[in-house]
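OP here, attaching both records as promised.
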Amino acid sequence: MADQQRPAGGDSGRSEQQSQRQREAASRASPARQPSQLRGRKLGDRRVRVERPQAEYFRYAAKDTLVARPKAHEEKRPLGRGLAFGRRILFGRPLASAEEADERLPKKKALAIFSSDAISSSAYATEEILRALVVAGASASVGFGYLGLSLPVSIGLAVLLGVVALSYRMIVVAYPTGGGSYSVSKATFGRMPSLVAASALLIGYVLTVAGSVSSAADQIASALPALAPWKTWIAVGAVLLITLGNLRGLREAGNIFAIPTYLFLGMALLMIGLGAYQIIVQGVDASYPVLADATVDMSSLALVLLAVRAFSAGAVGLTGTEAIATGVPAFKPPEARNAATTLAVMSIILGTLFVGITFLANGYGLIPNDEVTIIAQSAQAVYGDASIAFFLFLTFTTLILILAANTSFAAFPVLAAVLAGDRFFPRAFSFRGERLAYTLGIVVLGVMASILIVIFSGQTTALIPLYAVAIFTDFTISQSGMVLHWLRNKSPGWPFRLAINAIGAVITGIILVSVTISKAPESLLVVVVLPVQVASMWFIRREYDTVETDLVIEEDQVFDAPHKRNRVIIPIMNLSRASVQSVQFGRSLSEDVKAVLITSDLEEGETLRAEWEKTLPGVPLVIVETPYRSLVVPFLHYLDVMAPSEQDVITIVVLPEYVPRHFWDRILYNQTADQLKSALVGRPETVVADVPYGSEHRHAGISFRGLWSRNGGDGAARPEEAAPTRE
């Protein structure tokens, strides 16, 4: 017995030695797979660290859990590497998910990004008030004239601004996850009102970009009249630049756009201070010019209606206050507290600018015209129309109006991502790009705003009212939602908060109705688009719910191995290496393999059958003659009639597909295969398998040599050679 065991043990030892020698020989024969050796730091250290090449691409985080290294994200093809290099130049290096916290905004940068829309409203809000009052004439018997009503109206709007800002501060604290009025209405009113609020916000953000950039183009035309014919394309170019800036990420956008915002604030506050000194201390003629069509007397009711109209027109100055509540997740922790502080500072700045610029317009007797904006006229009166300070102020005003669009670029993608998370938007809107920005939302916003600018030819007066309708719809819903919120959650101090929100809901609702009526029929565009947007989001959610219901797995459900058989059907055009490769692949899947030739020449088909039977014995070839030279449709009917769908049979259609050598070659190949794949999608109990073929140096997906060899070699890669090494 011992004598029998001894040779066996010896054979085993020799076998192990031979295996070791074979592995060493294979290692020497394959230098590409030769592991790298890294010696220790100490001189003479004999310890060697062995790493497989795969360690450059992956590392183990736990058993069966890998983490892709930066090298695993590098493109292999030259075209892909070129595009990646271009993206790096335009947008910067890709950021890892762990760097997301560093991309969040501190309060100073957040004020520049999220408040630029609201602050920029001061550049055109006063003008909208004066345009509403000018219809009554500039000079009349009523006190200081009808245009003088602009100052009391602006003070009333500043009070309303405080109410709205306080309300949104409550929203920030109550709903710190972002979404603004959408989150409020979803929690209080339900699905349909929340979709209306979200749609109003989305439409408002698009109109914000179009209106703000168009207003910036107006400022450029005021300073350089020669550029007036190019205002539309200047606005489109500005939208493109802002889009590119935001694709670099929030932090980068803050670095780029913060300085112009604070420069505008400094110049605007300086202008208001100097102007107030000139008006109050030095004394300035505050009389308005007499208009040719001036109305002398108005009834008390008409005067009240005029004031309401002016109040509604100037309410565009409140727009932008909702953006901070929408973009709370973009703030550094503590998010809610930082967002609330930024909102309070923003409302104080906006109120000061709004009332201050209106005071200057009253003090200097300014009236709106189509050539020079009110804020430009104010700067002319304070700084002088040919001074360096005047041109600097116009430059900063133009920049802040352009940057006002940046508020939408910060808030729109966040809201779209929230909606995508709730399955009311395509899921792609929730995916972050290489710079941790919601890339698709940014691009879609830029494209839609550019289209609007072109359609309206960059006319600010046509875009601003549409913006007001959308935003005040959102204001009214959010304020009403907070009223219901306090009624349900009676926290300490809730009666005061409820009163604030109730007052805000009533006033913003009245403004909404007034703006919609006064700006008809242009305002009806929002009224029409809003339900269309709501319907589209409802449809998207229903589609996602339907698919989820179809794919859901019941609780505690266990799936055993399927008791089904496979049949393989291979459409061919001729006898070639590609056809043989597909057949060999089909043989690996099933014993029931059948090739189908769709041809208009039966004689040629029979000739092919003779060659086929010699090359691939045991694999039947079915020839289908098509007198009308159609290929795809007869093959589909062949499947339906000769290989009908059965619950216990899976039909695998194997398609040979050529791998082009160049990307431009795709138009030359695979047209029929693409048509077949499109037609077979959704066919019950049917699977489509692509078998790539091409020049061997192109590394087709399935090796031809491995599948078609005379000695029956399998050519399969060894799993141990493809697995990364644990570090």
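Record two, same layout:
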Amino acid sequence: MKRLILFSMVCFIATVTQAQNDSIKTETLQEVTVQGSKVVQRVDGQTIYPTRQQLESSTNGYSLLSKLTLPHLRIDPVMHTVTALSNLGSVQVRINDMVASKEDLLSLDMKAVQHIDYIDNPGVRYGDGIAYVINIIVKKPVSGYDIGADLTNTLTAVNGDETVYGKFNYGKSEFEVNYSLGYQNFKGTEYEEKASYELESGTEYNVLRQQLEGQNKSLDHKIQLTYSLSDSNYVFQSKLSAHRDIQPDRLWTKFENYEDHSSSRTSSPVLDLYFHQDFKRHQSLTANAVGTYIHTDSHAEHNEGGSYAYDVTGKTYSLWTEAIYENRLKPFTLSLGTQYGQKYINNEYSGDAVASNSMRSSMFYFFGQLKGRLGKLGYMGGLGVSTRYYRQAEWNDRFLLFRPKMTLAYPLARNLKLKYDFEISQHVSQIALVSDVSVKQNAMETLVGNPDISPNRVTSHDLRLTYSTPKIMSELQGYWRLNANCNMEKYTRKDGHFYQTQTNAGNECSFFFIQSYNRWEAIPEHLFITLYGGIYRFFNFTDDYRHTYTAFNGGASVEAYLGKWTLTAYADNGWNFMEGEHRGHQPAAWYLTASYQMKNVTLSLYAQHPFCARPLTHKTEVLSRYIHKDTSQHSRDLGNMLTLNLTWHLSSGRKYRNIQRTMNHRDTETGILQSK
């Protein structure tokens, strides 16, 4: 552990020492920014200005983000995902401060991109569980059209993601239609589970669940219609989308003596209305309303120790509203806002898991925030008050939490900045785990919901030392988080059967990490090198168990821009973590990319997990005193995976101006309790 901490400190010091030779011209008073730098350090994160080569060689939003190598994130340009390499929360990607869909990122116009705001400590106005926000700022087209296609197909497996789009602008109006088709049929999945159950008699019952055949199918359709009306001081946007997700054999597995099978079909129309108005004296008002309906039909079947099958028909209705007032005063900016959400879930279980689960939930949140500067000291402070209400059958409860947040940033030298973040937030369990439904996992285990779970308070401290020049950005970070009375899993046994649920009475979950991140522009505009690494320590304490765990996380990337060619290489060792009685491992990822640009067409070839026939896709370990279980999964189709991406677009008469949307919300949670 001492060696890893020493390594992180040495990386940071060495980088800073080398950067002393870089010439610095001027310094702004607003953000401690070096003139000409492509990365601007802010109170709440960074602003990144992509190079001309990065923009011209990027085929879509995922391709662009992957070239930036943002700290703590993994961007997969083939599978079109953005995930956090941490246990801090999820990632929210926005365009002009509007939460962006996958289709929005695939149809992103690179010529319109101005900069990217990477917020690594979101303020009190962002939703629960959001650890990082990526906001891509683009110019608004006011004339012409843009049509195109982004076609991604794997050459070595059945996997594809096809998107076609058209955008038409006339004066203040923009019309956009976007359709995407995703399909997948991964075979050759290898699953192995070694489980040891301690029975009431004191004897051990050992089980080996070893998969012989496995298959994962999916078919996904989505169409999105958008109308925008904007002027210099207002924006109105209406977005209607319809999503159909079909998983005929979501998880089909054949074991030595039995089979598992599951399938699902989901339909979800969404209506999103947005309005923003600027007023005199630097004031603005923003409002957003999102209505969502989700219909789900699913089936699950297990044959271990006898047949066990059930069906679920689920309906989810939700409405989310938000309003924010902002006044850009001197020397600070004042933000006041409120959020209100209402959700109704009705899930009917039939078969061997007979249950009728109806739940109503609502939330109300009010927040205020100040952001400004006192001399050289940058600050951001906010306070939020949230209340949540749940009603299920005869059970109902209400929870109240005060959510303060403070950020202080101070320049120690011309290019050296110290920043400290403090926050109290709220962790809310998945609605499915709050239900009163139980679902059998296998012959020995049952997953049980717990309506008595309450949201828990999360306290975090974040200290960072950042050195930034036009060629080098280096950061040393120390982070600590405490979850008091947190929602953690608990195993119980009765009559030779084992039950898994969640409780939060007297539990304590915490972890800390020290990480070094370093990015170097080795050859201006042509060669970029990124290296990061850190050590993590986890603590999970309850009345039943005390678990600790130490993990190391690291990665590197190289980007080379050679005329019409772009070459990239990326690798990380995954993410190791512990939560409750589960010790998990998010597998390592590595890929090579070669792209060639020909006017309006770009061809890219991605090689994922080269020289690996069956890469690891999943690994967990259960450490209960009643159950010890090791689970691993490998995929043949993901090994030596070659994927071809073709991007084509045609535009004419495009003129741009700046507008910005400041909020959005999307609901995907159905509250259905499912077996693994």
